[in-house]
Amino acid sequence: MSIVRIRFAIFVYDFEIKSRNNISNKIPNVSKHQAKSVTSIGTRRQSGAATIVDVAQRAGVSKKTVSRVLNSEPNVRPETRDKVLKAIDELKFRRSRLGLALAHNRSYMIALVYDNPSADFLSYLQTGVMDACKSRGIGLYLHQCSYDSPTLVEDMAQMIGNTAVDGLVLPSPVCDQQPLLELLEEDRVPYVCVNPKERDHGLSVSVNNEQSAFELTAYLVSLGHRRIGFIKGHPELASSDMRERGFRRALARDGIDVDEDLFAQGMNDFESGRAAATELLNLDDRPTAIFANNDEMAAGVLYEAQSHRLRVPDDVSLIGFDNTPFSQHIWPRLTTAGQPIAEMGKTAAAMLIDSFNDRDDTGERQANHVTLECEILIRESSHSIQY
Predict the structure, then answer these.
(1) Averaged over 163-173, what is the pLDDT?
(2) How many CB atoms lie within 10 A of CB 87?
(3) CA neighbor of 133 nearest in space, from 352, 370, 357, 344
């Protein structure tokens, strides 16, 4: 038995003891006999709730069939599933998470472990993960870490041991930390990567970052732009490399020489967008268009363009990436790529949860990668070059 599962057993035992103690602690100045009576009352009230046996009897099926329906297993006839669901609704049956944990040696919890500079990205990703958890009766634990911390592996081992989560959702750059992945593989802790640099670590989900950046750049070229500034994303994010790769590929296809002076480093936040924009706009031969690696940095570009008395898009066209809410609420509205962030989170969590029952004979997960498509959104922040 792994160290995580041993800690899980301790966790459940500790939970039971604390729960029992809490009942007595909430009843001051009573005898042990009185406390025991109250405990019995609580037990009788709980035992009055519908059980899986009640559901099976009401639906006229076996307990195993009810279990299959509850676990969303495919090998149940539609009419049988409907009968079971109707019985569940009529009896107001609710599964006991603690009972499930004890029966299956699982916590029925997963963790979203993150360290990403974009608050918008994390908000949408979390929404998607929660949707998948809710539909499958799984709890969600949020854990912020420092991906470059020298104690990352130790901290994560402690978190997993303390929470006994069944698996982890790891967005970039956390999912690109090899020592962490080695720990998870060694302890057989399931995980899924979101936007990883490498796709050979089992389950992963990403979007077509490179192709979307290629299409956005090609659009600017089609408008007549040749001097296009590019603000790089956070250097530790796989998406940053992919988008830059797409940008360079589009220029090469159209025979446009790459000018390294037109590249500025950003960190995927507003302030770094401002700093990079200042660098590009102060060039003697400034760009006629700027591609910011995400919408937050594009907002910084818009701010600095106005402070330089430049109009977007008349003096400089601007595009971003992500389609965050403000990209539609500012003026001019931002040309960008709509990244299905919530769908990424939902897909990643669903893959992880479903994998708990989908392993080969050795207990290992099979590699599986899903790529989602971005939507190119042409808006008012970009138009043909003005001479």
Answers:
(1) 93
(2) 21
(3) 352
CB 169 within 8 A of CB 196: no
CATH class of 3-103: mainly alpha
273 close to 300: Cβ distance less than 8 angstroms: yes
Sequence-separated (6 or more) residues with CB below 8 Å from residue 47: none
Sequence-separated (6 or more) residues with CB below 8 Å from residue 109: 138, 139, 140, 141, 163, 164, 165, 166
State in words which class domain 107-206+344-360 has: alpha beta
Maximum distance among all Cα pairs of the chain, rounded to whole angstroms:
91
CATH number of 209-340, picked from 3.40.50.2300, 1.10.630.10, 3.30.70.590, 2.60.40.10: 3.40.50.2300
Stated pTM of the model = 0.71
Query: Are 29 and 185 spatial neighbours (Cβ–Cβ below 8 Å)?
Result: no
Query: Which of 55-59, 116-120, 160-164, 317-321 bottoms out in mean pLDDT, i.e. has the lowest?
Result: 116-120
Query: Is 284 in a helix, a strand, or coil?
Result: coil
Q: How far is CA 387 from the centre of its chain?
A: 44
Are 258 and 285 within 8 A, CB to CB?
no
